[in-house]
Request: fold
Amino acid sequence: MRILLIEDNAALARGLTASLRASGFAVDHVTHGVAALEESELVPYNLMILDVGLPDMSGFDVLKRLRQRGATTPVLILTARAALTDRVTGLDLGADDYLPKPFEPAELEARVRALLRRGQGQAAPALTLGGLVFDRSAGTATLHGRPLDLRRREWSVLESLMIRAGKVVTKERLSAEVFGHDEPVGPNALEVYVGRLRKKLEPDGPTIRTIRGLGYLLDVS
Ligand code: CA
Reply:
């Protein structure tokens, strides 16, 4: 699950990034609206957390351009302004939720989870392969009827491979979907998660093949 945080208050952004990462989300952070529009075109984010008062443009303008472009990514608006008109403007422009500052991190996280669940429910039916059933709406995976105990990163890796089952997923692509841009990640982090996933899928689940020099492939045969 990858989140783009657009917030120019450095202290707030640091705190939010740390707490969301601690909960297992991949988080990218930008401070300007223009950067948000650029980033969101390059990376398939699951959610955007958007401050209204940005240095270069209003968060409402960012939202407007996103929706004009046809982007359906859920957007949670943060605003210091308590005015009701702000809230109405945001929702009119296609925001999915709205959180006035100041707020408790736990409150933000509860809303983030709710939005992600909603987004998944709309866009993501259960994926099946062999005996593996990967239910993105329910957040559960089973192998021949047995529940699979997956950590969040393992879940992200498997999700990325399941969506493209039978096709090579490059390491770059996989990393982009599992980790944040500036997240300190060791060179072998991806291999570690893939290794753990393989153990959990053995012996009767689908095989994750390493395609040397390229990436990974979830075998459909
Ligand atoms: Ca601001």
